[in-house]
Amino acid sequence: MTTTLQLVLIVSAVLFSIGLLAALSRRHAIFILIGIEMMLAAANLNFVAFWRFAPQPQPPTGVMVAIFAIAIAAAEAAVGLALVIAVYRHYRSTNVDELDQLKG
Amino acid sequence: MNIAAFIVIAIVTLSGALAAALLPRLIHAALWLVVTFFGIAAFYFLLGAEFVGLVQVFVYVGAVAVLIVFTILLTRRDADKDHAFHWSGAVVAVAVFAALVWTILRTPGLSVAASPVEALTVRRIGEVLMTDYVWPLQCIGLVLTAALLGALVLVMEEKR
Q1: I want to staple A44 with a disulfide (CB 3.0 to 4.6 A). Which of A66, A77, A80, B109 is the partner?
Q2: Would A39 be classed as within a structural domain?
């Protein structure tokens, strides 16, 4: 028995669902960011897996997309965490349920 | 590809992710997230994309995890008050998981084994980055600069 594309895709689906669970169920803003990072990592795993299991030789497109996605994820994490700090300064809280000033 | 190594790495990665998602203390979750990132890097090594694995360790473990820990320290007063858990989120996550697995299992042609591949050297990646992907590379530089400047502006103390 060898590793198949299906197996990698299922692992990445589990990782994506765990990220979604963290992003939707937790109320702390940093937990939501952790969940988003996990979902991005699952997507990257899919890119690399599809590149690896495609008929070879293959231009390294999947690898390139994964590298660019990692760079975008780093930018997203920096801005997201800066937003968490700014919100904390303003509201003295990072619980997203308490940030309801825009509520009608 | 080695199935035993794959299963071990999958168990480590997914249990790390589960701990990061469910543990009540934020700092524990951040440290388990580091385990998850290492596991994903190991997956990249197993899949023959060593450079992506290294980038994953440098960027995620070296930068993102440290950023998360620093943010936890800076918002410390709040860090341990989070005991609320919304079960509706779990229901949505399970539904999405079921849909994804159903789609994967129903798609034909996915149970292919990996064909042998020539090693993807850093030299080749550098050549591709400097020829086919030179404009995306410049754009990503701009995006990163703008994002870091934006992050700085967001956290700067307001002048009184």
Answers
A1: A66
A2: yes
